[in-house]
Amino acid sequence: MTEAPLLGELMPWSVPGLRLGRGWVRSAHPDVLTARWQRLADAPADQRSVLFGASRARTVDSAVAQLPGQRTPSFRLARDPGPCPEPVRIRHGALDRLWLLPDQRVLDAARPELWRVADAAQLFACVQPPGVGGPAVAFSAELPDGHRPGRAPGRIHPLYRRPGGREPNLAPGLTRYLSALLGRAVGPEDLLAWTAAVTGVPDSPGAPDSPGTARPGEEVPVPLTGDPELWAEGLALGHRLLRLHTFGRHVGDQHSGGQHVGDQQSGGQHAPERFRLPDGRRPFVRERVTGFPEQLDHDAESESLLLGTGRIAPVPRAAWAVGTAGVPVLSSWFAARSIDPEARPGSLEALGLSGWPQQFTAELIELATVLTLLAELRPQQAALLRRLRGAGIGAAELREAGVLPVPERARRPASVLSHREEGPEGQFALL
Asked: Which of 50, 71, 106 is the last residue of a domain?
């Protein structure tokens, strides 16, 4: 079997996942974060330290710089917390979207190098834990936290090394080599789309040598091809997968030549695609949710999600089965919105919503639709992998072409000087 190149070779610059250090800085609803911050800011100095939850990396006396691109105070929390930082949307795990307080004073390891390149033109890839039922690599338009159930945070691979979709984070010469081989332009988003297509469901899920599955070192093989017809099929499939993974934010297609085709004057922002199931179906609320539901379950016979007193249908069994590390995505999504039974009374983690907002139900419907459509594309992914088996471009060919190994500089972040970054205690950082 041809030894496929690894994701870490094709996208050489990667950053460890975020290490938050405390749970109260992340929530499913931005209003919860605002309330938690206000309680922290209003607390007397001696109680503020207890509420904060000190770690080896952060205390209320830590002096740290602003996160790039964020307007937050840099004075010590013990001295002046300042106004609440505006919560930002992040990707939590493979397919959940939560909110985070973007303030280095409350985050143990915020990974500033990621924040410098996180904008409307950026896309991220993050390796997921091995296991049947979920993708080997997750893709997002939001900055991911790298969370993986039961494991250390995964490494995050940005598609671009600089803001504005500049300097692709790809092995030097890779797109030029593939363009010449395939007889068509190959851009960075094409490479990412192809990766999405071939890192799906293999013939034997979990087998270490199967293309598209994580190896013991948590690296993912990415088989390539020089067959123009096969490439075109994989590209169309991959761009569809990227649109699903990004909840409609990815707008590239197989005709884009890898260009980001959003409104460039508005930074690539556009209205996200609204997805529907085959035949125009879409899950909707059959019975209204009342109170705060205690559990989420699935009834296969009626194809319904049971959310306390509420019921949402149709949601096929295939959507419920999608999971990471053996945990259904929908179950993880609900747990992130439930009251934490282990939260200490009076702690910031214990401060949450008193009722179930309609926004959560809308998000659940959207997620269930995306999971259903992802599951329906798996047979196409498996068929693509079968056709690639033993006939793809391997790491040896890339080494012969001089694409691999990548130079060490490609594994380091690029210098980004476009952000005016404030250092600790209001000083300006020297870059």
From this structure: 106
Q: For 312, list phi and psi in degrees, rounded to 5.
A: -120, 130
Listing from the earlier edge strand, what are the strands of the sheet with 143-144? Answer: 26-27, 96-100, 88-92, 143-144
DSSP states of 28-87 as a string? SSHHHHHHHHHHHHHS-HHHHHHHH---SS--TT---PPPTT-----S-TTT---SPPPP
Q: Residue 207, SS3?
A: coil
Distances (CA, A) of 58 to 49, 52, 286, 295: 11, 9, 47, 35
In the predicted model, is pLDDT for residue 130 greater than 90?
Answer: no
Cα distance between residue 193 and residue 235, in whole Å: 6
Domain containing 290: what range? 278-339+356-377
Assess if residue 395 is contained within a domain: no
Using only C-alpha atoms, what is the Rg of the chain?
22
291, part of any domain:
yes
Residue 145: inside a domain: no
> What pLDDT band is residue 324 in, cutting at 50, 70 and 90?
confident
Confidence at residue 364, expressed as pLDDT on a 0 to 100 scale: 97
Residue 199 reports pLDDT greater than 70: yes
Domain boundary among 81, 106, 131: 106
DSSP annotation of 256: S
User: SS in 3 state form for 181-196?
Assistant: HHCCCCCHHHHHHHHH
Q: Confirm whether 298 is domain-assigned.
A: yes
Given a cut of 90, is residue 272 above it in pLDDT? no
Residue 276 and residue 234 in contact, taking contact as beta carbons nearer than 8 Å: no
Say whether 333 sits in a helix, a strand or coil: helix
Please tell me the total count of domains within the chain: 2
Please check the confidence at residue 185 and state whether its pLDDT lies above 60: yes
Q: How does pLDDT run across 2-12, given as a tens digit for each residue?
A: 799 999 999 99
